[in-house]
Amino acid sequence: MNTNYIEELNESQCAAVTYNDGPSLVIAGAGSGKTRVLTYKIAYLLEQENGYNPWNILALTFTNKAAREMKERIARQVGMERARYLWMGTFHSIFSRILRAEAQYIGFTSQFTIYDTADSKSLLRSIIKEMGLDEKTYKPGVVQARISNAKNHLVTPTGYAANKEAYEGDMAAKMPAIRDIYTRYWDRCRQAGAMDFDDLLVYTYILFRDFPEVLARYRDQFRYVLVDEYQDTNYAQHSIVLQLTKENQRVCVVGDDAQSIYSFRGADIDNILYFTKIYPNTKVFKLEQNYRSTQTIVCAANSLIEKNERQIRKAVFSEKEKGEPIGVFQAYSDVEEGDIVANKIAELRREYRYGYADFAILYRTNAQSRIFEEALRKRSIPYKIYGGLSFYQRKEIKDVIAYFRLVVNPNDEEAFKRIINYPARGIGDTTVGKIISAATDHGVSLWAALCEPLTYGLDINKGTHAKLQGFRELIESFIVDQADKNAYEMGTNIIRQSGIINDVCQDTSPENLSRKENIEELVNGINDFCALRQEEGNPNVSLTDFLSEIALLTDQDSDKADDGEKITLMTVHSAKGLEFKNVFVVGLEENLFPSGMVGDSPRALEEERRLFYVAITRAEEHCYLSFAKTRFRYGKMEFGSPSRFLRDIDVHYLQLPHEAGVSRAVDEGAGRFRASLQQHPKAQIIAPSVPRNLKKVSTVSPSNGAQATSSTSASVAGVQAGQMIEHERFGLGEVIKVEGTGDNAKATIHFKNAGDKQLLLRFARFKVVE
DNA sequence: CCGATACGCATTTTT
DNA sequence: TGCGTATCGG
């Protein structure tokens, strides 16, 4: 069933989809169907006569979510059999896959650890200490940012040391030792068999640069490369894409320069602005019809972004109704701002019968959320907050994961330091310090030093020695276990035998309870993961598999199809790519939005303006802007003035204040309300100790592995095409076909919400619905 | 090795 | 203000 591209796409979309003779740049205005173009384009490439095989296509995104959604949409068009072989994923996940396969070329093993930003900061902190540098001058965060910046520009320690500009910059910042820190950091990561997020890019670049035969292999495989959100790529990403595509020029990048808001993470808007200079034969397509917002919203956003100097000019338009003007609210205080917004939401709900999920409150900084939480809670309006700690960043989870990491890669320094004395086993900082210096003196990993204390001249007493060897034996026993245990069995084992369970179960204080629940949730997660992989036909799911899966996962990904009817509270950054019927952009004050950090940098100011542009263009039907004249910040009352951005929007599209008549509520309660703040949203989805209704997973019983849980397998035997089933994870779906028999029986199922999947019936957990 | 207290500091965060 | 880290005392 070939897609009818002309009918389902508008003219410019269609042109962008069907042009594939050379490099192309698709400038996709907000709400213009960017993802649609990308998915149709890939489908088109697959469906053409003599078209591409799925494994010939590399599609890079920035989030796992985007990759997953796109893959599902493509699967709907060309079928899962083909879609599953596409190379589609984030830069980081695709590159880590390549690096694991080619690890030996660059002196790593395929088990290398991925350090997250906390790991890398912690390593930097200890390096700074070891070097005897002043931690006030060399703040780990600042040092980390500089090193990250260097890596994003593909500057290695050698290059950095030789780089005059960098050194002068460091001198000016009174941090001449950064180049030495960088060198040590680099070596220590290698010693630990670890890469940080930036390294995944740097080493991929180096791999391709230094081993032309490897590059040739991938270049030949990836006959077409597509990149989403190109405005957010950094120099390293740009360079790798160039390595892969310079020769055959089959590359298509999609993005919107007006939505480039991640320069603080190294994104370089010049990549998109000058793409046509790098690929001189680029054909440029502009998607200018906005299908999301009313004309008023689109025009207002246009009038705003027009004030930016650096951009690719385009004329975004909407053919939806004109809509209402953008309302501007002035509040006397931050608290009143919360009241105004909450009241307006209630009013809109009454007037238009909107659901709660149709509303979003967007702010510049996370700190602003509290005021709105309070206002909404006072009125019993349900809401959910995005942001804050992700599941995998919680301390207790990181502790458990550290065990996993050390078992998979004993050289992992950060994991080692984290658990050498957790749970407490009498190995203090002094001992760890000795291990570190012995290890660095001899150029070996901490683990190596621990295993052979004599060889590396570790000066410790008998008792300590015994404790260290006890730890070694513990980890080694886990390493041995790996051979015949799957991730779930390993996980439960480790938690029990390491003493974590005891530690957590000891006291029954409320916050400890949540720690326990989190660990249970993690165990459930491992179980789910194993089950899922088994359903997909991979019987042996190792701890390594689980680790490489979660290293690059973020909270946003664990898409808990949960909480429906709630108002969304989030930063503008995290709202990118989303849309809501009604959007409130709040805190439009100087020094807040635009952020006070922009100083007098025009580039930074323009980025703030783009951020505001992103915020406004999230709205489909109604958009409101608000500011407060006073606001509590850092414990003090501050006076603010309306954001200059309010004047950037053509007044023609605005409905100006409205001295909203809510001032009665003024500052009553401006004091504190911290006591009763709602828990982190994550808490709501954490499994209660009693397993979830559909699920039948025991976190306690041993040896229950991830084998099919009993209740379902009986009904599974007689599954046939045409039946409706309900899967524990994917929900409702229709059986398309069943192939194979016995243990190999496999069903293709079309899920309403999860797309097409092929599941091994032996493991599949679902029941037939009448 | 843990707890209490002091200090400093503070955007945004796709990986 | 309120959190996370640093430091000191038991």
Walk me through the topology.
Elements: H1 5-8, H2 11-18, E1 24-28, H3 34-47, E2 57-61, H4 64-78, H5 80-83, E3 87-90, H6 91-101, E4 113-115, H7 117-130, H8 140-152, H9 157-162, H10 164-172, H11 178-191, E5 194-196, H12 197-210, H13 212-221, E6 224-227, H14 235-245, E7 251-255, H15 270-273, H16 275-278, E8 283-287, E9 289-290, H17 295-305, E10 317-318, E11 326-333, H18 334-352, E12 359-363, H19 369-378, E13 383-385, H20 395-408, H21 413-419, H22 429-442, H23 446-451, H24 462-481, H25 487-497, H26 500-506, H27 510-535, H28 543-550, E14 567-571, H29 572-575, E15 580-585, H30 602-616, E16 619-633, E17 636-639, H31 644-648, E18 654-655, H32 681-685, H33 710-716, E19 724-727, E20 731-739, E21 746-751, E22 755-760, E23 766-769
Helix pairs in contact: 2-3, 3-4, 6-12, 7-8, 7-11, 12-13, 12-14, 17-30, 18-19, 20-21, 20-24, 25-27, 25-28
The chain binds a DNA duplex (15 and 10 nucleotides) through α4, α6, α12 and α29.
Distance between the termini: 29 Å
Shape: globular
The number of helical runs is 33
Mean pLDDT: 86
Q: Major β-sheet, in short?
A: 8 strands, mixed
How much beta, percentage-wise? Answer: 5-15%
Q: Work out the radius of gyration.
A: 27 Å
Number of strands: 23
- The residue fraction in helices comes out at 40-55%
Secondary-structure-derived class: alpha/beta
Uncertain runs are 660-716
Catalytic activity: ATP + H2O = ADP + phosphate + H(+); Couples ATP hydrolysis with the unwinding of duplex DNA by translocating in the 3'-5' direction
Domain UvrD-like helicase ATP-binding: 7-294
GO molecular function: exonuclease activity
Keywords: ATP-binding, DNA-binding, Exonuclease, Helicase, Hydrolase, Isomerase, Nuclease, Nucleotide-binding
